[in-house]
Design a protein that fits this description.
337 residues, alpha/beta, 9-stranded mixed beta sheet, 3-stranded mixed beta sheet, 10 helices, 14 strands, 41% helix, globular
Length: 337
């Protein structure tokens, strides 16, 4: 089989009932298999799959391993040349595989590809989590072609050019299966959030390319498994972002960048506090404590990443502060940056 489309599910029965039909309809069985890896669901997801979608290959885990380790475990059982990490809340369109697979077929230095991601609930707009390809600034803040901070653009074809990006969203990520396994996949300790940015940064540092192919379009609900105001989500995002910076930043940048990020995170916590989000404010400080605790354990990983780096200066990492551009210069579209 050329490609395995792997959907990681945790209590997503309703989402799969809504969106799996589009995947089955638009995924040619002669080149692709559809796999659902179930993360210990308790909502009868497995029974529903066996009854309504018997052609789907099912991998059932004994518990919820999170997004990162769930995919690592699932992809360890995949033998296809390419794997697609696809969220359970994604609606795919006719020919959605064509452009990404053509790009992967064309050059072995391209490790991963993402299509253009539009919002499933507001279909003329980009989707927050991936839009038309991801980047970060010098302090680790992620943004996309089509989404800067909280400002999401309407898709008027302004980013329809295929381009190299720093990271492809885990909502719909095409990757060479062999490279995924060889380069370590997703960081299991991240559990969820920012793990695909960390992996893609690692791949770019090791000489691979990540590409967005806007000829392929999918629609993503987004935020379907964890509420946007969840303190746990806040904790994971802040902790994982610090870990990502520690793992991947060059030695010449690490101390200054982390010092400034600590200060920016404190400002974010104060903002949460002022607006009455006390649990989110506490989550930011808990993330900092957990990062400090984990630093020693991550030192060997950082050392390995630096030793394997062959592209220390990555052009897809913005050299200026995204926060300054967005809030002070009022540059709120990707095309203005």
């Amino acid at each position: 089989m050329k490609v395995s489309v792997v959907i990681l599910n945790w209590n997503g029965k309703a989402l799969m009932e809504e969106f799996l039909p589009s995947v089955l309809k638009n995924t040619p069985s002669e080149i692709a298999e559809i796999v659902v890896a179930d993360n210990g669901s308790t909502d009868n997801s497995i029974a529903m799959l066996k009854e309504k979608f018997s052609s789907v290959r099912l991998i059932a885990f004994d518990k919820n391993y999170g997004f990162a380790e769930g995919y690592n475990k699932a992809i360890s059982r995949i033998d296809s040349a390419y794997t697609v990490l696809l969220n359970s809340d994604v609606e795919v369109t006719p020919g959605w595989l064509d452009a990404p697979l053509a790009v992967l077929d064309a050059g072995e230095t391209i490790a991963a590809v993402q299509p253009k991601i539009r919002s499933q609930r507001n279909r003329n707009y980009f989707e927050y989590a991936g839009a038309a390809g991801g980047f970060i600034d010098k302090y680790g803040y992620p943004y996309c072609r089509g989404r800067v901070m909280y400002a999401v653009e309407e898709d008027n074809g302004q980013y329809d050019r295929q381009t190299d990006i720093l990271w492809a969203t885990g909502a719909c990520l095409f990757i060479r299966t062999g490279i995924y396994k060889k380069e370590g996949g997703l960081d299991a300790r991240f559990f969820a959030h920012q793990e695909e940015i960390d992996m893609c940064w690692r791949l770019c540092s090791r000489g691979y390319r990540i590409v967005c192919t806007p000829e392929s379009v999918v629609y993503h609900v987004g935020g379907a498994t964890l509420n946007v105001e969840s303190p746990h989500k806040t904790f994971l995002n802040f902790r994982n972002n610090l870990l990502m910076l520690y793992k991947n930043l060059p030695e010449k940048d690490i101390r200054k960048t982390l010092r400034i990020r600590y200060g920016l995170d404190v400002i974010a916590a104060v903002k949460f506090f002022i607006t009455g989000n006390l649990k989110n404010a506490a989550a930011v400080f808990r993330a900092q404590r957990e990062f400090r605790r984990l630093k020693k354990e991550y030192l060997p990983i950082r050392t390995e990443n630096l030793q394997k780096t062959i592209t220390p200066e990555i052009t897809e990492i913005r050299k200026k502060s995204l926060l300054f551009s967005f809030y002070i210069e009022r540059k709120q579209k990707f095309s203005q940056l």
